[in-house]
Specification:
binds the ligand C[C@](O)(CO)[C@H](O)COP(=O)(O)O, binds cytidine-5'-triphosphate, Nucleotide-diphossugar_trans, alpha/beta, 8-stranded mixed sheet, Spore Coat Polysaccharide Biosynthesis Protein SpsA, Chain A
């Protein structure tokens, strides 16, 4: 796979409360090992770790110090990428199927920018103080996942634009859109959830027992 995989793994894992998530074990493997396993066919893998954290030995990846935000960590990885396509993937999403990866890659090759999304399964409400407020139409909304794919040159331009304008985004697709380029949507997968809260770890443990990608 002629693609640079960029794995931002420099977060503090504050909502989980167990330290940096890259080294958390699920089903006997760290989240970083799960992510690397999903991209085993990639020509290049770059990982951002919290500054000062020693790179693990024996893994097929290049390790760089991350930044203060996810966006800053991705920007550092992007500078080091050597291939014309990049896939940006949260280390906190251990379960990436090969089908999902191929869908994102194919749409990226065709359009320059593609992300996986899911429909919203629950009712969405804007609270009024402590009470139930206006319901927001879930039909019009999607949940955004990773891996997100881009032409490397396009994502570099988007990050440069964001730096110049002082934009701070929670994902990379937002920056490409802010630059004025379209981002294609492909179907995501519920199993590609982000390990964010303590309950997610139990789900990940259960899924790890049956996962074969
Ligand atoms: N300065 C940062 C912040 C986040 N990330 C990465 O961005 C991804 C999504 O972030 P999230 O799930 O929020 O992880 P954390 O930032 O670690 O969690 P929290 O927000 O609860 O502290 C993770 O893979 C995380 O490691 C990063 O590389 N550099
Ligand atoms: C990139 C992302 O996973 C897409 O849903 C998400 O925006 C990361 O957000 P976080 O607050 O850094 O977890």
């Amino acid at each position: 796979m002629e693609v640079s995989v960029l794995i931002p793994a420099a977060g503090r894992g504050e909502r989980l409360g167990l330290g940096p998530k890259a080294f958390l074990k699920v089903g006997g493997k760290t989240l970083l090992e799960w992510a690397l396993g999903a991209f085993a066919q990639a020509a290049e893998v770059l990982v951002a770790l919290p500054p000062g954290v020693e790179a693990p030995k024996g893994l097929r990846a290049t390790f760089l110090p991350g930044g203060e935000t996810r966006q800053a960590s991705v920007a550092r990885l992007l500078e080091a990428a050597n291939l014309p396509l990049v896939l940006v993937h949260d280390v906190a999403r251990p379960f990436v199927s090969q089908d999902l990866l191929e869908r994102v890659l194919k749409a990226t090759q065709a359009t320059g920018a593609a992300v996986p999304v899911l429909p919203v399964p629950d009712t969405l409400v804007r609270p009024e103080g402590e009470g139930y407020g206006e319901v927001v139409s879930r039909e019009a909304l999607r949940l955004v996942q990773t891996p997100q794919g881009f032409f490397t040159a396009l994502l570099r331009e988007a990050h440069a634009y964001a730096r110049k304008r002082g934009l701070l985004a929670t994902d990379d697709a937002q920056l490409v859109r802010a630059l004025g380029y379209p981002v294609a949507l492909v179907p995501g997968e519920r199993t590609a959830f982000k390990v964010t809260y303590p309950e997610d770890l139990a789900l990940a443990e259960a899924l790890a027992r049956v996962w074969n990608g």
